[in-house]
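Open question from group meeting: does this chain pack into something compact, or does most of it stay loose? Before anyone orders reagents, we agreed to write out a predicted structure and look at it together. Recording both the input and the output here so the notebook holds the full record.
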Amino acid sequence: MKPFVPQLVYIEPRALEYPLGQELKKKFEDMNIEIRETTSHNQIRGLPGDNEFQKYRTAKSTLVVGVRKTLKFDTSKPSAEYAIPLATGCMGHCHYCYLQTTLGSKPYIRTYVNLEEIFDAAKNYMAERAPEPTRFEAACTSDIVGLDHLTHSLKKTIEFMGESEHGLLRFVTKFHHVDHLLDARHNGKTRFRFSINSRYVIKNFEPGTSSFEERIEAARKVAGAGYPLGFIVAPIYVHEDWKEGYLELFKRLHESLQGVDTNGLTFELIQHRFTAPAKKVIQKNYPKTKLELDESKRKYKWGRYGIGKYVYQNEQAAELESTIRHYINDYFPQSEVQYFT
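Structure tokens returned:
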């Protein structure tokens, strides 16, 4: 698939006080993309579209260039100590995405240009934990790789972490546009992870993202560039013949990584979950989705900010975990499964 290009760009006036804001404004002018001014992303009104359905899709291709005002980082367990805020929102259309809960009414993409201030905040968090390393997750609220060919914010962050004494960076992506990141001076401190899933899940629930084959080819590239490599299997989803579907996934992954040094390979396993607010947004924006969202089949689990989530029942979750761990042990016995949640 082609790299993301926004249909519409909003720029907050304060963003032009930073070099990256000025650089992006010129870039989008040269690309003949419509640029509008907004005092704040919260003030955006009147996105093109004849109805809410069309406006949602316009929003998913709208980029807001702004300043990150809150420099208090959220925690990001279990994958990292903190989330480093480089961007918010995603150009993909994954039906199950947890951003349906947090960004349901504002699904446009935001990129933050005050990188030095963000890096200074990260240094403070590192200093608090030193000499222990501090892991930062860069993809908590976005698929940062899908945007970075335009902004290079992630590349700058990779090099910032590479030069730090105690910082480690992690992010996950469903996009394959990684070529500009291959020469980044990462010094082995950034773990590059790719989201993978069964054919059924990718086909039915992940429109607007790179194919499995494109993701794995990108994984080969980043491994060749010396990045520590990982995969996130998420969401692990019960569908017809799911055991066979996930077995085929790991067979394909094993075959596709032949010749790649998989020492230190990591896996993270996340079962499918949804919230009540997300269910409403999903059914509104993807009315023909095949995604199973029946609360009666699930277990209710308390979540952050008082928003509970529906996960699989204990017995079914245990079967999912044991099955996937078994496949990983068969095909990647030297790898580490970091967690199942």
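Observations to bring back to the group:
Residues 8-340 form a domain with the pyruvate-formate lyase- activating enzyme fold (CATH 3.80.30.30).
The CA atoms of residues 201 and 237 lie 8 Å apart.
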